[in-house]
């Protein structure tokens, strides 16, 4: 018998807050995204955002993106997401990539894919650009309040992220995702 992730639920969906796009991700996917976003916010991730990609990709329902200004924090955020989703929702990733350098770590939960990137990779790869036409999922308040924190941190530390992002390797573990 197929598990809950193996069979896509038939949903009517709901409209985004601005009523511009229809969200069709499953309730389970949205539950996972919200728990992961809150865990990332609790570990002080920057610029947390989630997209419903269920209409354009058949492999997953949602992408969650978050970033941090250093490798140690990237790993801490990923560890907290993984622990929280396992403890609270019984979800374990089927794949984890990018641990070697901890500059871009990907957690694949089938229903959702979580990308936690170093701030420099986040600017360079600009994954938001790829998914900007997909509905943005509403996140818990703590997670939503992280928007713009990466730029604030860069300004406070005097770092120009666009200069540092040149010449970065492709994706987690040197491969394009």
Task: Describe this protein's structure.
With 177 residues, the chain is α+β, with helices and mostly antiparallel strands. Helix content is 36%, strand content 19%. The protein has seven helices and seven strands; from the N terminus they run ββαββαβββααααα. The longest helix has 19 residues, at 71-89. It is globular, with a radius of gyration of 16 Å. It starts with 13 loop residues before the first strand and ends in a 13-residue tail after the last helix. Mean pLDDT is 83; it is low at 1-11 and 164-177.
Q: Summarize the biggest pleated sheet.
A: 5 strands, mixed
- SSE pattern, N- to C-terminal: EEHEEHEEEHHHHH
Counting DSSP E segments of at least 2 residues, the number of strands comes to: 7
C-alpha termini separation = 30 Å
Short description:
The chain is α+β, with helices and mostly antiparallel strands. It contains seven helices and seven strands. 38% of the residues are buried.
Write the layout of secondary structure elements.
Blueprint: E1 14-15, E2 22-23, H1 27-42, E3 46-52, E4 62-68, H2 71-89, E5 95-97, E6 104-108, E7 112-118, H3 119-125, H4 127-131, H5 141-144, H6 149-157, H7 161-164
Parallel strand pairs: 4-7
Antiparallel strand pairs: 1-2, 3-4, 5-6, 6-7
């Amino acid at each position: 018998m197929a598990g809950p992730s193996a069979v896509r639920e038939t949903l009517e969906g709901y409209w985004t807050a601005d009523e511009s796009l229809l969200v069709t991700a499953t309730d389970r996917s949205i539950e996972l995204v919200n728990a992961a976003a809150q865990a990332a916010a609790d570990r002080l991730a920057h610029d947390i955002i989630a997209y419903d990609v269920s209409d354009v990709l058949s492999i997953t329902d949602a992408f969650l993106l978050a970033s941090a200004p250093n490798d140690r924090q990237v790993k801490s955020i990923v560890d907290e997401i993984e622990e929280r989703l396992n403890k609270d929702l019984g979800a374990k990733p089927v794949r984890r990539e990018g641990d070697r350098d901890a500059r871009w770590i990907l957690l694949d939960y089938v229903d959702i894919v979580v990308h936690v990137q170093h701030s420099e990779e986040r600017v360079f790869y600009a994954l938001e650009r790829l998914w900007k036409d997909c509905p943005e999922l509403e996140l818990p308040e703590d997670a939503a309040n992280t928007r713009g924190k990466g730029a604030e941190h860069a300004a406070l530390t005097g770092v120009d992220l666009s200069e540092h992002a040149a010449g970065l390797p492709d994706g987690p573990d040197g491969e394009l995702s």
